[in-house]
Amino acid sequence: MKRKYFKILLWTSLGTTLFFFLFFNDEKTLSSFLITLLLSAMYSFVLGFGNGFINEFLNRKFPWSEATRTRAVLSIISIIIGNFILVYFCNYMNYVVIQKTATIEEFFSSKYGVTNWFMINIALLISAFLHAKSFMEELKKTSRKEVVEQKLIAKSANAQFESLKNQLDPHFLFNSLNVLSSLIDENPRQAQKFTASMSKIYRYVLEQKDKELVTVEDEIEFARTYCDLLKTRFEDSVDFTFDVAREDYQKYVVPLSLQLLLENCIKHNFATSSKPLVIRIFSAGNILCIENNLQVREQIKESSGIGLSNIVQRYSLLTDRNVFIEKSEDHFKVKLPMLLDKPQVSSVKPEDDSAAYKRAQKRVKEMKSFYMNLISYCTVCSFLIFINLYTSSRNQWFWFPVLGWGIGVASHAFQVFGVGDSWQEKKIREIMNKQKK
């Protein structure tokens, strides 16, 4: 139990002690006050800890979000049985052991039946409040989780959109077609090879566009093909080095990340035969590095950095490991984390998630309505029993509203947790399946 919960029970004990001592106790002595404090503490802590233990046990074994119907049925059963036992234990200790106003035979006779019933109703009220509070807290947690999931879905869709926009720079296609056009007349065989490489690149883009992760081997093979095209275009002005360990080939990286980084190297640096641009791709531990010598090209407009931010965003959806960017006076390096396993990514479509959220929202409203009905029943019935017994204990008219409203609450419980719409829909599907056969 939490320390805060212990303090609440302690203050409840002191409050009830003062109330009963000042208004329902004729002897204003220290011993009378201590006895009242003892009894109040016993009722508060036994009922409080008992109901709290039952509630926490059910929270661990049958959470509201995972087993709603089972949890609701078990909550109702545990509220009735648990409080029946706890109240009888407290009343037995009060009247038989501590105050000694009744014998064991008298306690279990009809003489104390009304008192026990009244205390059970009070305990049911407290327990119903605790379970309703637990339900509302679980509802808040689930709502926060669903909001986060919706944000992740939107963020993932945005990342995929940006990825598609940045997979291949239009300038690369334009320049490659220019190179191909010149090769057709000068070197037809090289032009044919160049065309085959372009076909591989675009086929890889189409194959990987919907994947979350690809193996390092596939990405390196694609990068080699891409570098061959760049080498044909820039000749001796660009030099590529691959130094990735074979044992890292079965690890995973974000698809097309190397292409975006290679394109950035070409876009932001000048390359000549006298000052070639040297790009090195290598592995170090669980990191895939892309490094180039810095030869900054003068830009007409400042770079937006969409390519790098897109890679960082896609990694953030898959792992807690970060993409690191290092820049010095003469070198620029990007470090991509290599993942050992593919993370479990939810494949639920936004439409399906939205429909499920609406059904869950409707379900929550039904359960909330039932618990409000249950709390109202316990509160009002306890008040009616107190008024009836206080004014006229012989004429026990409180049974009529207790039983009448109780039947209504039981019917509401069966409708929400037992034979509601979900049960009807299930039966309809069973009948339709039988008819199809």
TrEMBL record:
Domain 2TM per the UniProt entry, residue ranges: 358-433
Keyword terms: Kinase, Membrane, Transferase, Transmembrane, Transmembrane helix
GO cellular component, one term: membrane
One MF term in the entry's GO annotations: phosphorelay sensor kinase activity
InterPro entries from the UniProt entry: 2TM_dom, Bact_2-comp_sensor_kinase, MFS_trans_sf, Sig_transdc_His_kin_internal
Signal transduction histidine kinase internal region domain ranges (all copies): 159-237
Key word NAD present: no
Keyword Repressor: no
TM regions (residue ranges): 5-24, 30-51, 72-94, 114-132, 370-391, 397-419
Superkingdom of source: Bacteria
Protein name as it appears in the record: Histidine kinase
Organism listed in the record: Chryseobacterium panacisoli
